[in-house]
């Protein structure tokens, strides 16, 4: 069970954040409303929501997931791979230290975004992407193995971050899209296969008794419900415009 989450309010500069999508400029007011709804959904899932204040120096800093990897026993402060995001960790580090006594760091020349790290029970999958390099992935693998977790490094082909295309729902069940549908590293899991036209819905989060999914993906919702999970749908339009998904907006521990 998760007890805590950390989120960060988007600042007005959010509209200038990084993106590879052509979905247009986010509407700041709408992003704030969607962020409020996200916090309410987390609370419905029974977790405490610790909110960090906005920081307009870092347009993408509402995507807190990329700054750390958290386990029940220790925290790893990441070394985000985008130059404009790297210093987000300066504010995140003290926030995380309020909850953890044991922490590690990913250090240059290793780079790693938390969005490239997926935990399935005691096994972590670490994606190699535009943001996470082999050196960063190896550092994390070594940390995790020293703490008795398993770790597998996965080369991404098309997805932005590992978790853009795959989520873990517990009970050995993965939600998979695109290159992960038949990926050998995930062969042993039960799979909920996201149809190509609903690929964005592959980034969903299981928070205690609910799976939070993006609104507007009825086939994926039905598949997740049929597998026995209760869902909460959230409009994510303004975060999607900057390549963000549900997992990116919080650290859960
Ligand atoms: C970025 O390019 O870093 C942000 N615009 C989106 C980050 C999304 N984070 C995530 O998938 N974990």
Automatic annotation (TrEMBL):
GO molecular function, one term: amino acid binding
SUPFAM superfamilies tied to this protein: Pentein
UniProt-annotated catalytic positions: 161 (proton donor), 248 (nucleophile)
Binding residues for substrate: 18, 60, 65-66, 85, 131, 242
TM annotation in the entry: none
Key words of the record: Hydrolase
InterPro entries with a match to the protein in the record: DDAH-like
Pfam families linked to this entry: DDAH_eukar
Segments forming a coiled coil: none
Domain of life of the native organism: Bacteria
Gene3D superfamilies the UniProt entry points to: L-arginine/glycine Amidinotransferase, Chain A
An example Gene Ontology biological process: positive regulation of nitric oxide biosynthetic process
Family, per entry: Belongs to the DDAH family.
Name the record gives this protein: N(G),N(G)-dimethylarginine dimethylaminohydrolase
The species this protein was found in: Cytobacillus depressus
């Amino acid at each position: 069970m998760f007890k805590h989450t950390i989120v960060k309010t988007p600042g007005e500069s959010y509209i200038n954040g990084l993106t590879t999508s052509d979905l247009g400029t986010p509407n700041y007011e709408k992003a704030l409303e969607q962020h409020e709804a996200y916090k309410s959904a987390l609370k419905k899932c029974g977790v405490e929501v610790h909110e960090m204040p906005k920081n307009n120096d870092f347009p993408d800093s509402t995507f807190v997931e990329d700054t750390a990897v958290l386990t029940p026993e220790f925290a790893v402060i990441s070394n985000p791979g985008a130059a404009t995001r790297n210093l987000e960790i300066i504010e995140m580090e003290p926030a995380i230290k309020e909850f953890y006594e044991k922490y590690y760091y990913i250090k240059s020349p290793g780079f790693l975004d938390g969005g490239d790290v997926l935990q399935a029970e005691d096994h972590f999958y670490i994606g190699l992407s535009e943001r996470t390099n082999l050196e960063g992935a190896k550092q994390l693998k070594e940390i995790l193995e020293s703490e008795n977790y398993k770790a597998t490094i996965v080369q991404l082909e098309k997805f932005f971050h590992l978790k853009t295309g795959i989520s873990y729902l517990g009970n050995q069940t993965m939600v998979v899209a695109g290159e992960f549908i038949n990926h050998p590293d995930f062969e042993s899991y039960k799979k909920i296969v996201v149809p190509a036209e609903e690929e964005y819905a592959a980034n969903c989060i299981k928070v205690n008794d609910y799976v939070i999914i993006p609104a507007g993906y009825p086939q994926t919702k039905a598949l997740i419900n049929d597998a026995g999970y209760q869902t909460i749908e959230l409009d994510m339009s303004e975060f999607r415009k900057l390549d963000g998904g549900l997992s990116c907006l919080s650290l859960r521990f």
